Amino acid sequence: MRFREIAPPRDRHKVIGGAGTGLSGLKKRAFRSLLFLDYKLQTP
How far, rounded to the nearest angstrom, does the alpha carbon of residue 18 sit from its chain's CA centroid? Predict the structure, then answer.
C-alpha cells in the first residue's frame, strides 16, 4: 500500500512516457527531439 501511495502507475507513465510507456516512450521522445534539433540546426 505504501509503495502505491509513493508512485501510482499513472503518474509513473506520465513522468516516463507520455504517449508511450516505459523505454519505448523514452526512445520515441529522444528520437523526436533529435530530429527537431537537426531541423533547427539546418535552418538559419
Answer: 6
Query: Domain locations in the chain?
Result: 2-42
35 pLDDT tier (thresholds 50, 70, 90): confident
Total-model pTM = 0.37
Q: Which cell is 29 given?
A: 521522445
3-class DSSP assignment, residue 21: coil
Rounded Cα distance between 33 and 22, Å, is 17
Q: How many whole angstroms separate alpha carbon 4 and alpha carbon 17?
A: 19
Q: Is pLDDT of 21 > 50?
A: yes
